[in-house]
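Question (not urgent): is this output format expected?
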Amino acid sequence: MTFSEPARRPETSPYERLAALGVTLPAAPKPVANFVTHVIEGNLLFLSGQGPTEPDGRQYHGKVGGTVSVREAYQHARLTGVNLISVMHHALGDLSRVKRIVKVLGMVNAEPDFGEHPAVMNGCSDLFIEVFGERGMHARSAVGFGSLPAQITVEIEAVVAIHGDEER
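Got this back:
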């Protein structure tokens, strides 16, 4: 008996994966204070914290574990992931330059006794893996805060390794 190697699917781009998910990238969110949305240093892209902001500017507010359920906060973290990908696209010009999502820090505006921070942050992590495949697997911290700016439910920042022009 012989075994054949499974057929390989052609690699799809992050843009094709976004389209398959029904995600349209919004314009990159503007900073809300005196900072920039990203900094490129060498082959690393540092993304400033983003929140759950809809393209029309509407944000999601409240305490997770109180007025906001884990399920709702998961969706807010996913929306925040879309905003982070939008900043990546703006910063890099092409999402194929993403070599790997290295580190994600997720901050949850949570009630003091809340303990499901990882379940909330999976909203962003799941999206990164769906869009970037293995390159989307990352180290992560998910922590609770007593408050976040404007009482948004989540804020997420990331560090991304990028391909230089010579590597593509």
